[in-house]
Amino acid sequence: MAGLLRQLIEECSVEGSGNVAVAVRNGGVETITSLCSKIPIRSSEQILVLAFGALALLIHGTSCVLLRCRILVWYADIEGTEKFRSSGGPAVLISHLREGIRTLGILNSGFSVVARAATSNEVVKQSFMELKIDELILQVLNEQSKGTVQSLYDAIRVLLTPDDNRVVASEVSSCHGNSESFLDVRREDCD
Q: What predicted TM-score, i.e. pTM, was given to this entire model?
């Protein structure tokens, strides 16, 4: 299994090959999401990390830009993020992140998927917020003392940044609501 996931990652990492688009069109996102839902963390951590890596590539391909201050920005691939959402990806991912909260590899690869899936897709952002990702993020920040979960900060940035591309007027304030949710959870921790 690990070998197949590595090969998928390798093939989808070839810039300009079109392999990501072919994989997404032929059910790659749904298949990897389903696979993730069946992988137990305890016995298959390495495979789950590879599966999250493949999922991150399939959701947004290799289109990313490194801006000043080392901030990654991914270009939106609505087809990939919608397939992730409709196949139950947010719930599967949050479940594994909660279970693997003390595992740096799971956290880094999992929050990388969160950042890519939520980029330019308010519906996916809202799905993550409904699954209480704000509480999970604060729990990770409080408990993680060994190592840094860089992708966690990318996920926070994406979740709190408004996307105007597909947002209806009534949803424009969702970013503000997400920020308030993070603050409310933090206030509860301080009490």
A: 0.79
